[in-house]
């Protein structure tokens, strides 16, 4: 019951500047904090009860002074910014939209985007278009996630020298650029495959990053077929957007486009094999995110489910690796890598 | 981070009818549930991961069937309805409004009511007026809370026979009616004191309940003074709406209106003396409720704080009693009773 209020009470302490003030000044009373952030001390005191309860802050009863607990006292500024960007994404993109979660589940559409922004479609379309509020909340969070996951992905995935690589649903080309940079070899060529309207920004990004000789773009819809002639297909942060039948269509399309021995490398959030594992908050977060806020459908699966689906679509799985959440402080959910070869 | 999503995922399973279907039918697959509630089985499966994680439901992997866990399997229908009415209040009254919590704290007004409903004022005014959506979500929850607290209050509070009782901020007279019924004695008279616009509905309620000879109404604003001539003043579910300075004005006004030896009996939610007590979710819930959704200010205090404020205002505290949350399954926060006498 108290999930929404706990969330917003914490974020409001960040938004008001209470946390910054305490990190800067060390110890402050409610009266000093109220003056510093432009709020009534009574209200500051009410908000800070929870932060004391959860040991985010500590309270010196004798002096009436608050000071940072271990988390806010110790976290470096960039890491704190990443946490706050995640909280802000949840607030801006999700908090109001999930009011309509039941309607979204029933209709298979993102009812919240329609009701709140007058937008019919999915979050990615809305954020790519005129809805700057959504883009500005979503993009920094996603950049942070990519920044965490990309080095890990490339430390686990091998692209043979001189490969022709297809980055499926590669958006505006950044995935292709990073693929080239992380695997540069004579003859390596990376092609972004996405909807035709992504071509111009992709080509511009290739030029801006000086990789226009090694990267190119093919426009199309993955559900109409996957381009042929590639040795390796990458599917990053994409399968979790779709229901089972669509994932099978995508994987079947990739299988049909590859020659025997051709490879697919997948990056996707995964639920833990033991759903009750308290270390993962994936099932706490993603169903509402995908069903209610972004797609009106989809959601991640367990690694074993993706493995089974790959095999159903004619692949031999050669490697699976899941992130270890115990080594990732603050991360909500582990991503997984699945590498497979066309049988 | 996952508070809002956990909350709405659970409530959506109730709203869709998944819980009702499983309580009625015992065991169902995602496909059967999808058909029963009019949603895609893939989406049902995504939502139910969390309910399995938290043991609200259980999953028979071999049969692919879900069935109720101990909570949903055991809770009687009326108790379940009360829980769902609380979840629904949080959704309708709070989930969208707390988006504006920071702005509400800064301005001391309920910015969410203005932004979402075009209403300037507090929740109680909005719900009493044209905003039926808010009233219909708030009133059943509040009725349930009153139903839980009223017998407990009267088992702890003694009204001397023949007293003249003032029910401070008594709204439309129901508190006066219950006070009379629970304490009927020759000469007992209970007066509701509230804003003048509550007079007509109060008198109508007194007549409808046949207590018009024992109950009456005085119109006025507690901050302009409290009527004199009463032996006992009741202050129920009211002090928690105000900041310290306002609580002190209310208590001082009551003290000035009473003769020495006159009594005040207070019912109010209280935070635990040890704020870190995990059994109470008061500080998790009320700051966002009062600051962001109802008043733009206020919030409960610890029993010891109310006791100190009563003493500051010229009272001798004769009794304090707090609810024991361990005996109240499902309750978020303990209420307290404070009885005091004018010194």
UniProtKB/TrEMBL annotation, chains A, B:
Keywords attached to this entry: Methyltransferase, S-adenosyl-L-methionine, Transferase
Domain O-methyltransferase dimerisation: 7-65
O-methyltransferase C-terminal domain segment(s): 155-315
Pfam family, one: Dimerisation
Example GO BP: methylation
Molecular function terms, GO-annotated: O-methyltransferase activity; protein dimerization activity
Methyltransferase as UniProt keyword: yes
Protein name: Uncharacterized protein
Organism from which the protein derives: Streptomyces hoynatensis
